[in-house]
Write a structure and sequence with these properties.
Blueprint (H helix, E strand, L loop, with lengths): L3 E5 L4 E6 L8 E2 L1 H16 L5 E6 L7 E2 L2 H9 L4 H21 L13 E5 L3 E2 L1 H7 L3 E4 L7 E2 L13 H9 L1 H9 L3 E2 L1 H7 L4 E2 L3 H11 L2 H4 L18 H18 L4 H13 L4 H16 L2 H18 L15 E5 L3 H12 L3 E5 L3 H20 L5 H9 L1 E4 L10 E4 L5 H12 L7 E4 L6 H4 L9 E6 L8 E6 L5 H13 L3 E6 L6 H18 L3 H10 L6 H8 L1 H15 L6 H12 L12 E3 L5 E4 L3 H4 L9 H21 L6 H12 L8 H8 L1 H15 L7 H8 L4 H5 L7
Parallel strand pairs: 2-4, 3-5, 4-6, 6-8, 7-9, 8-11, 12-13, 12-15, 13-14, 15-16, 16-17, 18-19
Antiparallel strand pairs: 1-2, 9-10, 17-18, 20-21
Length: 732
């Protein structure tokens, strides 16, 4: 069965149906292009066919391109992968241009056959680029459908004509949210914005009626018509000039120059606007090829698309465990984390029991969901009826007996081993014998917490990131006694709530906090050394970190950092490495500058709690040195402090799969997404250079930058992480 099939009715309308049988959503493959090309040829040359409707056999239209196609196009070109990519892209342009011209006379623009698209639901990436080259786009009024071009989110840009067509259709300014931000909208908003043409209750009937009545002029795209002018002005027009100057500033402001796709997209739009349409497609193809050949884009595609999707589909799930989807969840603790866990679980349709010490506290936790729904109602994202359904799934109570038929418990009480142990014993006396018990701890070792359990094989860590409803990652931690069913239960639950899981072995700070704490500490350490705080913060942002280390510690709270420091020092004794950091943290704590929550930290805040800038009082205690370090040195200290911990986590078996190391870093704490993650970044640098740089940093700044044995071995063997580990990931 091919991905595209065609049937012709008595009225002479050919319906080309896209239906990839082994996928839940249509994706474009190399073979599918050939089939579509042949069907379009058949439709255009058959006199009995009066027009064409392209639609889907699914309740969505398409999810985009199968990004594995990119690797295949490179391979097919042998020693010249860029040529393979460019030729493959230009072939797609040829097919879509054939659809667009539809057999019309090149000079008179007459005699073509009308071609419409019917979108039953979601249309993303190539799933919108193909419709854009047809003559009219009809969509069903499906409020859950998403329409747009999200390629920029995974390190590329719409390179199958979407960039050129959308810009010429809407103008650079109107198209920019969809191209530069990957904005997705429902059909009604897509029509209002000009992405599609009609929303109809029966889009197939509307499309048939249009096809049967379309005139020659209805088939001519604006850019093919004589006298076409780009909406908003071309680059050489005064209005257009200002648009492109502003767009360039916006792109550089948002990307700090580290995301090649955004700059390439803007270049394709600008240069394409200066030349005829067909030349503009070639310009777009060249820039798209340029981006695909950039190691940053390859790494982003691998981590944010291929690996992320694999983890979400259960790549590390134990194979021999039956389905473990959660039917009823118990959440212990109705604070910020417990309330967030209850919200996302109820959103997934899971019945939730939310427990706290007092009814008032439990009700307050449930009210978090009500407040969230109210905001959604105000934005017309949900309805009062759906809010009521959501709240009906959550039972807020102090009575542990409500947990007696739960199949998963998530404990989110105060970060104190004694408190957690007491709750574990009380709850295990009530819950079913086969109920899995999970602790949402961010730092406490799961193996130690499991000692309070009478069934350690059913005890596991499920570490959420705050705020729960926004953060995409969930870190699952296996204690020494954790069994496969507990792992499967945690993974199936995370899939239910539509987040991305990683599974790691138990160790102090697990994986995410193990890597992010050294990043924060390195920034604070530099403050103590007299490095200008603005240099520290801007160096981080210029290398792609979403927040500088000082802002990050303000957001997470300085007293929490002090608490972690004391606990770590108590556990490590003489091996504790961060005394220089503690000096700053404890001083800030003593000054009651605890971060955003007190409107006073490394940053200053106004009376409304809005961040104003770095606190100028810091220099009185830690004067800025006359001589400041090189920008690259600051950036490397900040990045290597994280990446070396990722390598050590892999080396020690805490991290069991390099895919989880990269995906977890990007989604968990925002590690420079342009790099594809810490291990991908080291692969870009090359193991030999990375090991050499470790030696330089160690000599200049201390033993915390000592090159791990694994990295040293890889350097000696000229290996990469994905070359050494990708083909044999360890099962979780």
């Amino acid at each position: 069965m091919t991905d595209f099939t065609m049937d012709t009715d008595a009225a002479g309308i050919a319906t080309i149906t896209w239906d990839v049988k082994d996928k839940s959503m249509n994706v474009m493959t190399l073979e599918a292009w050939d089939v579509l090309d042949a069907l379009i040829d058949q439709a255009l040359t058959d006199d009995a066919i009066k027009g064409v409707i392209i639609t889907s056999g699914k309740d969505s239209f398409a999810g985009g391109m199968d990004l594995n196609v990119i690797a295949r196009m490179k391979e097919m070109a042998g020693d010249d992968p860029a040529k393979g990519l460019f030729d493959g892209i230009m072939n797609a342009h040829r097919i879509m241009r054939k659809i667009e011209r539809a057999g019309m006379d090149a000079k008179t623009l007459k005699g073509g056959k009308p071609i419409a698209t019917v979108l039953p639901g979601t249309a993303l990436g190539i799933g919108l680029e193909i419709p854009l080259c047809t003559h009219r786009i009809f969509a069903a009024p499906n409020p859950k459908a998403k329409i747009g071009l999200p390629e920029i989110m995974v390190g590329i840009f719409p390179g199958a004509g979407g960039t050129t067509r959308l810009t010429r259709k809407m103008g650079a300014m109107a198209a920019s949210p969809f191209l530069l931000e990957g904005k997705l909208v429902d059909p009604a908003r897509a029509k209002a914005a000009g992405l599609i043409d009609e929303v109809a209750d029966d889009p197939m009937a509307a499309a048939r009626d249009w096809v049967l009545n379309a005139k020659d002029a209805d088939l001519v795209k604006p850019w093919d018509a004589k006298g076409y002018k780009m909406p908003g002005g071309a680059p050489y027009h005064p209005a257009g000039f200002m648009t492109f100057v502003g767009a360039s500033a916006m792109v550089n402001g948002k990307t700090q120059g580290v995301y090649p796709a955004a700059k390439a997209l803007l270049s394709a739009v600008y240069e394409g606007a200066l030349v005829p349409f067909d030349t503009a497609l070639k310009v777009e193809a060249r820039w798209f090829t340029n981006v695909l050949m950039n190691p940053s884009s390859s790494a982003m595609i691998r981590s944010l698309f291929v690996n992320k999707e694999a983890l979400e589909k259960g790549a590390v799930r134990p194979d021999d465990v039956a389905d473990q989807r959660v039917k009823k969840l118990g959440v212990l603790g109705a604070g910020m984390m417990g309330a967030g866990i209850s919200l996302v679980s109820a959103q997934a349709g899971i019945e939730v029991v939310l427990i706290d010490q007092t009814q008032e506290a439990a009700d307050r936790g449930k009210a978090y969901t009500a407040s969230f729904a109210d905001k959604g109602i105000a934005r017309k994202k949900t309805t009062p009826e759906k809010k009521e359904q959501l709240l009906n799934l959550i039972t807020a109570t102090t009575d542990l007996d409500h947990l007696k038929d739960c199949d998963l418990i998530i404990e989110a009480v105060f970060e104190d081993p004694k408190v957690k142990a007491e709750m574990t014993r009380k709850v295990e006396a009530v819950i079913p014998q086969d109920c899995i018990f999970a602790s949402n701890t961010s730092t406490l070792p799961i193996t130690e917490l499991a000692k309070a359990s009478s069934r350690p094989d059913q005890f596991i860590g499920i570490h959420f990131f705050s705020p729960v409803e926004k953060m995409l990652l969930v870190e699952i931690i296996k204690g020494k006694g954790t069994g496969d069913r507990a792992v499967a239960k945690a993974l199936d639950y995370v899939r239910q709530i539509r987040k991305t899981p990683i599974v790691v072995n138990d160790a102090r700070f697990f994986y995410a906090n193990r890597c992010i704490i050294p990043y924060i500490n390195e920034g604070i350490r530099m403050v103590a050394e007299g490095v200008e705080p603005a240099l520290i913060e801007n160096a981080a942002k210029l290398v792609g970190m979403p927040l500088g280390p000082l802002q990050l510690v303000d957001e997470t709270s300085i007293d929490l950092g002090a608490k972690i420091a004391r606990a770590t020092k108590a556990a490590m004794g003489d091996a504790y490495p961060d005394a220089a950091v503690d000096e700053v943290i404890f001083w800030m704590e003593g000054e009651n500058r605890l971060g955003r929550k007190t409107s006073a930290g490394f940053y200053a805040y106004d009376e409304k709690g809005k961040r104003q800038g770095l606190w100028d009082g810091l220099a009185a205690q830690y004067p800025v040195s006359d001589t400041q370090p090189d920008l690259i040195d600051v950036q490397h200290r900040l990045l290597f402090s994280q990446t070396l911990e990722a390598v050590r986590a892999l080396e020690e078996g805490v991290l069991m799969d390099i895919r989880e190391g990269d995906v977890g870093a990007i989604l968990g704490w925002g590690f420079a997404p342009w790099s594809g993650g810490p291990l991908s970044w080291l692969d870009m640098l090359g193991a030999a250079y990375a090991a050499e740089r470790c030696d330089q940093l160690t000599q200049s700044f201390g033993d915390r930058f000592t090159c791990p044995d694994l990295l040293r071995d890889m350097a000696a063997k000229n290996q990469s992480f994905y070359g050494r580990f990708a083909q044999k990931p360890k099962a979780a």
